[in-house]
Amino acid sequence: MVTKSGTQALPAPSRGRVIGREIWHSTRPILFVFALWELAGRSGIVHQALFPPFSTVALRLYELGQRGLLFVDLAWSLYRLIVGVALGILLGTAFGILMGASKKIEVWMLPILDFFLSIPGVAIYPVVVLLFGLSNQAIIVTLAFEAALTVMMNTWTGVRSVPRILIDAARSMGASFRTLFYRVMLPGSLAFIVTGYRLAFTRAWRILVATELMGGLGFGLGFRIQQGRQFFDAALVLAGVLVIAIIGVITERTLLRWVEARTVERWGTVT
Q1: Among positive and negative, which fits the CA dihedral 123, 128, 134, 139?
Q2: Is 181:144 a contact under the CB 8 Å cutoff?
């Protein structure tokens, strides 16, 4: 291709090449950390029984996969996480919109929201266990509660951040509340709402592991780490931690960011 100035322009890189380059730039630092981990584990500074090298942990992870335990643990953890976060998103979005749309509701709900946000989710879990026992329901309720608080705060912030002049202009043109909500308030606050979903997911993911460590339900990534601690199996503990980190990074840097970008672009809140 020749430009107007007479110079030959370089062809634009393909989409697959661009994605591959982004993946490489994202994984290169992590691979470097794994290499340092391998060297530190084999250096003898710390006994390998306490800090095994990365290759030993990867082999243990492969053994768990061969036995099927890895997939069972991952399935149970993701089930608890998805159900809890989904319930939290539904409740948090609804109450956050009510808070943002009504000053009277905001006056009552905001102090309550601030009160519960100051309590760590791990501290809420023992209270929930008193009501539901050591069960999946207790974990799901805890995750839903924590996710709802995060989504409520971000949704309320988003709705309140919509310029008042836009709302007044829509009302002066005779827009109904439904039209006002879908055409003005929701698009204007969507960036905050979707960011709240991301934060709720990451916060619930951390709390999930903590509750599984305490729950002792038989399956789950947190339970497997606790089992490794009880049997003094450092490779099993680190294998569980490694899976948690990998799932968190993949979810955060691919799925959640993609959903956030596509949703915000779809509603026209970014150019």
Answers
A1: negative
A2: no
CB 257 within 8 A of CB 194: no
Query: What is d(CA 146, CA 119) in angstroms, rounded to the nearest whole number?
Result: 10
Encoding tokens for residue 7? 């110079």
pLDDT tens column, 49-86? 788 888 888 898 888 888 888 888 889 989 999 999 99
| Domain annotation covers residue 231 | yes
Residues 6+ apart with CB under 8 A from 101: 159, 181, 185
Asked if residue 4 is part of any domain, the answer here is: no
Structural domain includes residue 30: no
- The count of domains in the chain is 1
CATH number reported for the structural domain that contains residue 64 in this entry: 1.10.3720.10
* Alpha-carbon torsion angle 111, 112, 115, 118, nearest 10: -100
**How far is residue 141 CA from its own chain's centroid?**
17
User: Going by C-beta distance under 8 Å and a sequence separation of 6 or more, which residues neighbour residue 269?
Assistant: 187, 188, 190, 191
What is the pTM assigned to this prediction? 0.78
- Is residue 74 included in any domain, yes or no? yes
187: domain range? Answer: 49-266
Residue 267 has pLDDT above 60, yes or no: no
Task: Determine the angle formed by the axes of helices 69-101 and 221-230, rounding to 10 degrees.
Answer: 130
Residue type, 183: R
DSSP secondary structure string, 58-74? HHHHHHHHHHTHHHHHH
Q: Are 205 and 85 in contact (CB under 8 A)?
A: no
Which residue shows structure tokens 């994202």?
26
- Report the C-alpha gap between 234 and 49 in whole angstroms: 6
